[in-house]
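Comment thread on ticket #2218

A.B. wrote:
> Attaching the input chain for the structure job we discussed in standup.
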Amino acid sequence: MRRNDFFLLDVYSAPTIDIINDHLRVKGGPAYYASLALYMVGAKYKVYLSIPANTELVSKYLDPLSMDPIHIDGYTFLFDIITRNDRRELRLLNTIKKYPLITLGEYALISPLQLEISSYDLLKIITSHVLSVIDLQGFTRIRLSDGKIINNAVLVPIVANILRATNNVIIKLSTEDIDYDSLIIDTIINIAHKYSVPLILTMGKHGSIIIKDRECTHIAPLIVSNKSIGAGDMLSTLVLYGIHKRLTIQEAAIRAVAATACILLSLEENKVLYSRCKKAFTEGYSRVKKKYFLCNKCCLNYFPVPPR
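C.D. wrote:
> Ran it. Output below, let me know if you need it in another format.
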C-alpha cells in the first residue's frame, strides 16, 4: 500500500560536476537526472539524496531549474568526460566519502559512479524498498592511478549473489559498461533468467533491450542526441515511475524511451519546463518502434559491435 500518490524515490549515487568535451556542466549525477526526468513528465514526486549535508544545498542540487554550481563537500565527484563514436572516456579527478544508506522513499535507483556504494550494501537497500533498479555502471569501473576509468567484468558474480536473495529488483546496464562483450551479456541473461529478474540493456543509437522471463523486447531509439549523458538515469527512473503507475516493465520502458528522447531534445533547446514531456510519456507506446520476441536471447541480433 502506498503511503500517498507521490512517487517517492531514493537515489543511491554521488552528485557530480562534469567537464564534458571541455565544457563545464555544473550539475550531474543520477539523482539530478532522476529529478529532471520526473519534473519534465509532470510527475508528483520526491527524490531523496540522503547524504548528511545542508538541506538547502541538496534541494538546490535536485532542483531542475537551478543552474547554480553545487558542490556538496566530501560527496561530489569531479569527472572529466570525452565523448566520441558512442563511447565515453572518463577520468575521475577526486575521491569522496562512503555514501550513507538511509531509506526515505518507496523505490530506489542504485546507480553508483565509482564504488561509493559497495556490493555488500545492495541487499540492505533492496530489501527496504518496494522495487529497485540497480544500474551496474559503478560496479564495472576501475580507477587507474592517473584517474582514468576503465571497465571490467566483475559485475557477473555481483549480480548472481544479489539475485539469489531477492526478487524485487531490475538490473540495468549498458553495452559500454561491459565494453560491448557479448559473452558477458550472455552470462548475465542466463543469471537473470535463472532468478526471474528483469534486465534492461541500453545500447546507445542501437536502442534498448528489455528481457523478462522468456520474453524479449527491442525498443528502437527515437533520436540520437548530442547530449546523451544522464539518459540512462532518466530511463531507469521513468521505468520505476511507470511501474508505480501500474504499467508492465515493457510498457514502462517504451514510454520511458519516448520521454527520455523528449527530455534530451529539450535540453538541447534549453527548455526545461514542468510537464513538457508528459505527452511523450503517456503516448510513448504508440510512438516508439518495438519488436517482441518469445525467447530471451532472440533480440540480441541488435547487439552492436564495438565502435572504433
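A.B. wrote:
> Thanks. Noting for the ticket: The longest helix spans residues 249-268.
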